Each structure stands twice: as C-alpha cells, then as structure tokens.
C-alpha cells in the first residue's frame, strides 16, 4: 500500500462504473401474451350458436405456447393458420371441415387480438444470460476462424 500522496485512487471508481454498465446490459424487458384469453376471443361464436369458452381457452393456450415464439409482437400474422396452430392431439390431415372452419375462425380472431397492446404483458428483470450467449458466439467464431485457416 502506498502512502497517501493527495491523489484519489481510481480503481474503486472503475469497479463502480463496470458494475453500472453490467447492470445496464443485464436489465431486460420481456413481452408475452397474457395467459388468459381476452373476453372478445372467448366470446367468439364459432361452433354454431353459442361461444365455447373452453375451446377458446385451448386455442389461446396454443397461441401462448407456440405462436408467440414464432412471430414477433408488432408484426401481422399470416392470413392462413400455420400448421402449429392446432390443438394438442389434432393431426392436420384428419381434421373435418367443421374443425378447419373453427380453427380458421380462432386464427382470424387471434390475428386481430395480436395487434392489441392490452393482450400483452411486459415484465422487467435482470438477466445475465446475454454474457454467456456472447461468450458462446465469440468462442464459435474463433473456432470457425481457426478451422478455416
């Protein structure tokens, strides 16, 4: 330890700055569909006379488990439902025309609900996984460069 010579040591300041930068990079927001189907989605009369809330909830569950990971929030969904938008246990070639119509109706309603901000929730938190991802990418890039040489 050196004697005090009138100057402030900068290493504590640098550590504080590094921690602030690390915190800024690690603070993230995540936006997901709300787990409960909106009232308009649940009230859609697709199977004849009355809305089927249980069926709507199952299709909304598919949207939260599958669709939101495939499409970005701000983008419009395609006109036709993708193969992934089906209830568990359903196989594409074995669907009846009525089941295809129901699926199409829920997809059309999902396309409308997708663009409404009330159907999304944003959570904030600290996530240090970005550093691991960057280290993996850098390691892969270095290894690929070494193998190409």
Please give the structural blueprint.
Layout: H1 11-26, E1 27-33, H2 39-42, H3 53-70, H4 97-114, E2 120-126, H5 129-148
Antiparallel strand pairs: 1-2
Key words describing this protein structure:
two-stranded antiparallel ribbon, single chain, 149 residues
Query: Helix amount, in percent?
Result: 40-55%
Number of helices: 5
- CA(first)-CA(last) distance: 47 Å
- Rounded mean pLDDT is 85
Structural class call reads mainly alpha
- What Rg, in angstroms, do the CA atoms define? 25 Å
Low-confidence residue ranges: none
Strand content: 5-15%
**CA-based shape:** elongated
Q: Can you describe what's shown?
A:
The protein has 149 residues and is mainly alpha-helical. It has a domain at 35-138. It is 51% helix and 9% strand. The chain contains 5 helices and 2 strands, in the order αβαααβα. The protein has helices spanning 11-26, 39-42, 53-70, 97-114, 129-148; strands at residues 27-33, 120-126. It has a two-stranded antiparallel ribbon. The chain is elongated. The two termini are 47 Å apart.
């Amino acid at each position: 330890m050196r004697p005090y010579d009138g100057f402030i040591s900068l290493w504590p300041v640098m550590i504080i700055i590094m921690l602030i930068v690390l915190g800024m990079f690690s603070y993230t927001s995540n936006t997901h569909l709300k787990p409960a189907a909106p009232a308009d989605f649940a009230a859609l009369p697709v199977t004849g006379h009355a809305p089927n809330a249980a069926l709507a909830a199952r299709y909304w569950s598919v949207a939260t488990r599958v669709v939101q990971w495939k499409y970005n929030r701000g983008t419009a969904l395609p006109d036709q439902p993708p193969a992934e938008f089906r209830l568990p246990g359903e196989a594409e070639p074995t669907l009846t025309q009525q089941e295809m119509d129901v699926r199409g109706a829920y997809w059309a309603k999902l396309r409308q609900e997708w663009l409404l901000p009330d159907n999304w929730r944003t959570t904030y938190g600290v996530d240090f996984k970005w550093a691991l991802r960057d280290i993996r990418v850098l390691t892969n890039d270095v290894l690929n460069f070494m193998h190409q040489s």
